[in-house]
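Consider the following input, taken from an annotated entry for Aspartate aminotransferase family protein (Streptosporangium longisporum).
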Amino acid sequence: MNAANATVGELAAYVDESQRGVPPVIRRRPPRELAERLGLARWIREGGMTADDHAEFLRVYLAEGTRLHHPAYLGHQVAVPDFPAALADLVHGVSNNPMAIYEMGASAATVEFEVLRWMLATVGFGEAGGGVLTHGGSLANLTALLAARASVAPDAWTDGVPGDLALLVPASTHYSLTRAAAILGLGERAVMPLDVDGLGRIDVARLPETLERVRRAGRRPMALVANACATGTGLYDDLRGVGGFCAANGIWFHVDGAHGASALLSQGHRHLLDGIELADSLIWDAHKMLRTSSLAAAVLTRREGDLDAAFRQKASYLFYGEQGFDLIGRTVECSKAELGLKIFLNLAWRGERGLGEYVARRYATAHRLWELATRRPGFTCPYEPESNIVCFRYGTGDQAAVRERLMEDGSFQLTSTEIGGVRHLRAVVMAPATDDKTLEALLDRVAEPDGRVHGGTVPG
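Applying the prediction step yields:
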């Protein structure tokens, strides 16, 4: 109990000082030096940690990490966890009910069923749809494409993958789609690019040309993937246009909504996902904009049977449970954590409206950064943001070096991406603590004279 109290105390202090922006947002001490500072080798060899030792260890451990609650955290698409999801992690850590088999966690499985029912209704699939939660978007995309493969090539599970299948994706799609194609046995050459506009969005008018090109290559589409939204830019594809084309041509339509599907909860932004109900499958990560801790990603299919067809496994020691209740037939994982509890508790505390307001505020803050940047000399933005992701450049120099300078002193965490072959700085607004003061400070820091960005490079 002393150790538990110490843990809660240290975490509370960590969140408080992070939200106030007191320490650096990121530290990157070299692993060998950090291992020494944490005393890892000694604790591993000798054990004997007490509650007081634990508190001191945790204090250093937290201080040396990345502070997602910090206003200057503008790096990656990883949630700033809300406290109900953290409580769910504690419950799972103690109860440890791996509920892919119903008898191993009836309450956890039931919570997941209801969370999935809510997600299916929100997307527009309703009672006819099916779903499962997985440990992350990469597994979710893989699972969805397994369902697509089962639909197009139902004998692939037993006979192997036909050599003529193709996966149609825009270049801006998440790397996990190409990885999934390789894992599924299609091979990277089966991943065929869609024509896109200058910002990487699918050019719907040119989809017939793409299909003809695929057929001339002796291929048939296994699935066509659209972004909602794109990982690099935060821009949404025209889901209704793409979905209509896929329906007219009998092509499985998969939507990667890992990051942007949460905009369905915001009345002011759900139009960005117009046509989502046309998808045959989609993924939706709760550990991004639904503020759950990592990982909790949904795989949703418009027809429940399509998801059930993704896996065709036999194991007499497992597959004998209560029909319709076991989730193991829909997912790679057997020992699956109580993922639904994290989403449920966030909903139970904040409600749909509260989570939707969180999404809307983050999108609004990102738009504010775009407004501030476009008013300043030297800054250029290639597009007006649609989500909480903003890309921009300052000057003509090495943008990656600008990022490194900010990361080195821990003042801000940014990422970067290429748009049209040109490197841009990339800010992802996730933390509730990020405000106008933060944004102005970021732009000031990027444009500092010692950065020498105009016409030159920034020293690391």
